[in-house]
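Chapter review: from sequence to fold.
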Amino acid sequence: MAEPTMMTSRSRVAPILASASGFIVLFFFAMWLRVVPLEPDPVLQGFLQVTTGLLAFIFAAVILVRFQGTQDRISLILGAGFLLSGAILTASSLLFFQFQQDTPLELRWAPVSWWVSRIVLALLFVVAPR
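The token string follows.
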């Protein structure tokens, strides 16, 4: 009779130990990343912006197809949000590559269009469940 209580106490401790060890590994990995020197690359930033815009369009298409099948308003709101975010990112990425090549481009912060598109998505994620 004492053995089943022993198994339940072990089964309760295992997820806690796994979570704690995962946190410690993630913490030390983050500390290691802080000392890694990174140089901003404008071309890579532009390509990432184009890729995230296209991914947003793909998410919007999948979600809007789901809306057609289920007539769920949350799917419509999220699909419209991804569509708007993808349009903002794609339009800004087309302008991104038109910067003059003669002037050095320093990207210390994320572009404004990235912030706007992420704020639109965040607002839609907050509004959608209600």
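Two observations follow directly from the output. The chain has a mean pLDDT of 78. The chain has two domains: 1-38, 42-127.
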